[in-house]
Amino acid sequence: MLALIIAQPYPMCMSQPLIDPFARAIEYLRVSVTDRCDFRCVYCMSENMTFLPKKELLTLEELDRLCSAFIRLGVKKLRITGGEPLVRRDIMTFFRSMSRHLDSGDLSELTVTTNGSQLERFADDLFAAGVRRVNISLDTLDEKKFADVTRWGRLPQVIRGIDAAQKAGLRVKINTVALKGFNEAELFDLTAWCASRDMDLTFIEVMPMGDIGNENRIGQYWSLNDLRAQLQERYQLTDLTEKTGGPARYIRIEETGQKIGFITPLSHNFCESCNRVRVTCTGEIYTCLGQEGHSDLRGPLRGSEADIDLDNAIRAAIALKPKGHDFDYSRQRVDGQVSRHMSHTGG
Ligand code: SAM
Ligand code: SF4
């Protein structure tokens, strides 16, 4: 045993990849850098949100140390999200700092999910920091409906953000939440619009997360099985086998060559291939988006400057990753709901 310990080139915790109890390798980290947002999307937030006091949030330096620990432990892909990540003060300092892990080759991709409102300002800086792809959330191309669904958002500002992102050289993927009775009629317009701008498009089923006031979850839910069937009436669809380790399944529309993604937590469970974990802006790690269980990383982060304590806390959290979520609407009621908002964990 002694000989074995001496033979280890690194301490155990640095040399072993992050593997969860179901043999899934964890290589993808999504970090929410703020719970705040300049929009109030009806499926995500209530109109009157109480946000965390600033002292609860990890500082940008702490976020850097935490992300760097995950990268040291084998995370290859880092997505920055929120709330709206680009409204966090000085967030470009953080992106610039993270780019050192791209330069070293330890990180293969640095990406961001945004509502697009601040991209006109930041697209060039993101590209300069090594970001090459952005996900932009957009549920409708109708200005009035956009204002309704986001409550505080304005469509022209987001379109200018998309223009700026493409001009800067960022590859854009549009994320659209499928909402019954809201954007059903726009399915083909949204698809054609993305094709005309050479943007990928992913549809997301609405998930029961957080108290959203008087909005009705079941009423909002539009199954992507239905959406796909509608697309199939007009286009020839080919299933793509590509696996990203993520929840999306992809098809190609043969007529346009476009790739369309479906994120279907309700109609198809995708947990068996889940390779990701999420960290909130307060340093809680959620190893499953659809479960309440989480562990604290802020304590170990603030409690010691020794990386070993942080690494061990990350490993202990990954060892608790559950098999999957329990979201279910099939009994005409909302099952498996989690109390926190998507903006808390980061979408
Ligand atoms: N503010 C950024 C944005 O909107 O892209 C990043 C954070 S947002 C929480 C990330 C993604 O989560 C968005 O694409 C949003 O549409 C999605 N989202 C929020 N609440 C959701 C819910 N209840 N069900 C499904 N998707 C949700
Ligand atoms: Fe803000 Fe994104 Fe949530 Fe909309 S979905 S309220 S933009 S965090």
Structure characterization notes:
This protein is globular. The chain has helices spanning 2-7, 12-15, 60-72, 91-104, 119-128, 143-150, 155-168, 187-196, 217-220, 224-234, 298-303, 307-318, 342-345, and strands at residues 28-32, 77-81, 109-114, 133-137, 171-178, 200-205, 237-240, 248-253, 258-263, 276-279, 284-286, 295-296. Helices cover 33% and strands 17% of the residues. Strands 7-8-9-6-5-4-3-2-1-10-11-12 form a twelve-stranded mixed β-sheet. With 347 residues, it is α/β, with parallel strands linked by helices. Mean pLDDT is 86; it is low at 1-13. 41% of the residues are buried. The protein has 13 helices and twelve strands. The chain has a domain at 25-174 and 271-345: Alpha-Beta Barrel (TIM Barrel), CATH 3.20.20. The structure holds S-adenosylmethionine and iron/sulfur cluster. The site of iron/sulfur cluster (SF4) has 12 residues, from loops.
